[in-house]
Design goal:
Layout lengths: L19 H8 L7 E3 L2 E3 L5 E2 L18 E3 L11 E3 L17 H8 L7 H14 L19 H13 L4 H9 L2 H4 L9 H6 L7 E2 L2 H12 L26 H8 L14 H9 L1 H4 L2 H9 L4 H13 L5 H13 L3 H13 L2 H4 E2 L1
Antiparallel strand pairs: 1-2, 2-3, 4-5, 6-7
Length: 352
């Protein structure tokens, strides 16, 4: 919803309109929830239960009536006060005994009268196409976060609501705009200012989940497990990858914020993973399939480029690739090297 409530967890927010009642009223919808992940637990107060701990997570005992929540002793103010479930900035909820509250919250979340959801969703969707929202901070749409094009944001929000929150309609509106269809090539004008005003399409990095899917396709590997393998460790995987699936661990490595796979980072650890992992140096099933079809060397190179960079090789690139393969000890190693080079190019990582 683009609402920052964390400062109201322990006291009224001195810089925004949010009160402690807004935070606790929202928390009441999710009271005493626990969940597990591969045998590990987060309990109801957000404490991580490590592997080998008691299988049944400890619950935070709250004696408040159903549909309400007690401010815990860790809070600065209002300790012991009881708050009923409450929509942000809105009405209190009179919950019936054992009435499921999360469906009530979910229904309100996407209600047309909710002043937060539609605008925040539009801004976040715009950000996924342009690498920056109309309001730059996609998780903070407060009055302090100014929109660069407020009329545009309001127009898209109204259109999204009028379409009954049809996401495909919203995507069509954005994708058919002149702003989205502009080139990312630099021009003679001031590039930074023009891009900031959506006068040119920015060059942006793929998100971590996009990169994972792109590598899976390029390597023809549905799983693409890039976790660190250690034959000396039981189960094969080192402690650096102790819990998650291949996808979970990839996103964790290639993400700044583990809670948001859109925030991709590419530094030394990520660079070393891409250039050194045996699966990305082996050519994968992609090269295997081409060899089974008995494709000639030029045809293989001309197929690897569209499969990675979505374009044909230039005459110079084709010549360099063929020369590299000819000098390789084995043709297979040459093909592997060309594919490895393509997935490690900045062009593969960038969306243009």
């Amino acid at each position: 919803m683009g609402v920052q409530l964390q400062c109201a967890e322990c006291h009224n927010d001195p810089f925004k309109d949010w009160k402690q009642a807004d935070f606790r009223g929202t928390a009441a919808f999710f009271r005493n929830i626990t969940w597990s992940f591969n045998g590990r637990y987060f309990n109801s107060v957000g404490e991580f239960q490590p592997a080998g701990a008691e299988r049944k997570p400890k619950k935070n005992v709250d004696n408040a009536p159903y549909g309400k929540i007690t401010i815990p002793k860790e809070s600065f103010k209002g300790v012991g006060n009881i708050h009923p479930a409450k929509f942000i900035g809105g009405e209190l909820i009179a919950a019936e005994d054992r009435q499921p509250l999360r469906p009530v919250f979910a229904a309100w979340l996407i209600d047309r009268k909710n002043p937060y959801f539609a605008k925040a969703f539009v801004n976040r969707t715009w950000s996924s196409f342009f690498a920056k929202g109309i309001v730059p901070l996609t998780d903070d749409l407060s009055d302090d976060s100014l929109a660069s094009h407020p009329a545009l944001l309001q127009k898209l929000t109204d259109e999204f609501i009028a379409s009954d929150l049809d996401v495909r309609h919203l995507v069509r509106c954005i994708a058919n705009s002149q702003a989205y269809q502009r080139t990312s090539k630099p021009g003679k004008e001031k590039n930074a200012e023009t891009t900031a005003a959506f006068g040119r399409m920015p060059i942006k990095l793929m998100s971590a989940d996009m990169l994972y899917d792109s590598l899976r396709l390029a390597m023809t590997d549905p799983l693409l497990d890039l976790r660190a393998y250690d034959a000396k460790v039981a189960g094969g995987f080192s402690e650096s990858s102790p819990v998650g699936s291949a996808y979970d661990e990839f996103v964790k490595v290639f993400t700044i914020n583990e809670e948001n796979a859109m925030e991709f980072t590419h530094g030394i650890p990520q660079f070393l993973t891409l250039i050194n992992h045996v699966k990305l140096r082996s050519g994968g099933k992609t090269v295997d399939d081409m060899l089974k079809e008995k494709m000639e060397t030029p045809a293989i190179v001309e197929a690897l480029y569209p499969g990675t960079l979505s374009r044909k090789p230039t005459p110079a690139e084709l010549s360099e690739s063929l020369e590299f393969i000819a000098k390789s000890a084995e043709a297979r190693k040459g093909y592997n090297g060309v594919l490895w080079m393509l997935v490690n190019r900045s062009e593969f990582l960038l969306v243009r």
